[in-house]
Predict the structure.
Amino acid sequence: MVKWTAHAITQLRHIHDYIAQDSPFYAKRVSDALVRKTFLLDELPRMGHKVPEINDESVRELSLYSYRILYEIKTTHIDILAVIHKRRNLQAEEIPRDL
C-alpha cells in the first residue's frame, strides 16, 4: 500500500498552486500524473533509483517532468516522503522520515 505523508501532500499542493497561476488545466494534469506515477510502487517498490543524497537502499525516487518523487520502502507499506523540483539541492534532513 502506498501512503502519502502530510509533507509530500503539502508539496504536491504547492506545485499544483504554482502551476495553476498560469494554467489550472496543466496544474491538475501535472499533479494527477505525479500521483498516478506512484501507483506502480505496490507491485514494483524497487523500480525507482536510490536517492544519492540519502544513501539508503530503502529510500528511492521516481522522476516525472521536472520533479523527483522520493519514497521509502517500509515492511508493510511505502511512504511517499516528498515531491521536489529536480533543480533543488536536496538536504537529507529536509525529508521527514519515521526512523
The chain has a mean pLDDT of 92. The longest strand covers residues 78-85. Strands lie at 2-4, 49-50, 59-64, 67-73, 78-85.
